[in-house]
Amino acid sequence: MKTIGLLFNGVWSHYTFATAPKYKELIKLIYIHDFNEASLEGLEALIIPFQSNQKAIASKKELIYNFLSKGKKIFVEGDSSMEWLDAKWEDRPTNNYWWVENPNNPPISETDFTHPIYQGLSARHSCWHTHGAYTAIPSEAKSIQKHPNGEIISWETNQYGGTLFATTLDPIVEHGVQQITHLDNYVDKLIYWLSGNKVSGTFEVPKENYGISIEC
Amino acid sequence: MIQAAVISNGLEGLHRYYVSNNLVQYTVLEIDQYFNPNLDVFDLLIVPNGSDHIAMAKMKDTVSQFLNDGKALFCFDGWFTNWVPGNQWIMSNDKKTIDIRYRVHTDTYKLFDGIDINKLIYSHNISGWWACGYIEASKNAEVVLEDTWKRPIIVLDEKTTNGIMILTASGPLGDSGAIPSDEASSYTTLANLYQNMLHLIIKKKNNENHRITF
Asked: How many structural domains compose chain B?
């Protein structure tokens, strides 16, 4: 049963992630330009991935906060906009090569490994790279991960009713890209936290998922 | 000067990579719920990395007509929907990025003149950083660049339609570089390869304008 919605703006990595056999029974793709109240029926959680259309999301922010007020969970990854999120995200250079040049020094210095997403993860599995940082977070939010310079990478708050978790990591996009091979560790824990469902196995996308046509 | 339309999916940074200059006037077309732009005034349609392939599929017929009018398409993204005539992008994780190397296959228009191919292969000594997956190319298309397993990575197709398509397997390119390279020399290479492609489109348009018909 699909209990996790994924707000989708036609980006290929979102599509490959949500249609992969490993996750497709749990994930409902919601095209952002068709997003409405009915889209959220039956869902317990919502994912807003990196490379989303922030302007389109901002225009529908009431739907997001209404969902949250019902005690649901929302996971936001990558960048975000102050037009809909009460936090300030800022761009930073992305370090994709620390694991080659300095493998024992990932670009995260603090992680709250008691958080359900991070319980049991190794340091390397809890960070591959980050896309920017948060320089301000909501008033009641707590930091989950920090950069060595003190900037916040991941945070969580319950002040809107449900649980809002935001991170500048990009597990959904990178898992969809299929080039970081250890991401099953992070994403499977994330899926369990969002839905209560345990998933296992490897991430693959069948060739027939490509070249699809769209009903207009 | 040519007129180019750049499809925007509302992502951060797009405007930095497509700045109008004396060769090309860029018009950014923002996708919304009812997106179906009139492309008649444009010579070139650019679909950059991170684009919306649901929106593109919905305007498939518009793109097809645009190409059949003799215009040009650059697609630098992974089109999982079937809106690109005759060619299909496929993602696959059955090859390891550490084994990825590129080789120029057929380059009739010399798009790789002055391009150090190693800058596309390696960034910070990591290979496979630029493109993703491969293209199932039309049998009439020219495979400009192929990977270790002879899979098409850059395709030039001027046979499937009346126009010209230059497609990368989700390898980002832009007028002044492109995401995601943070290494200066690779960043410059992305811009230079794009400029070679742009000059081809400009040259073809000029030839078209100077053609005498009887």
From this structure: 1
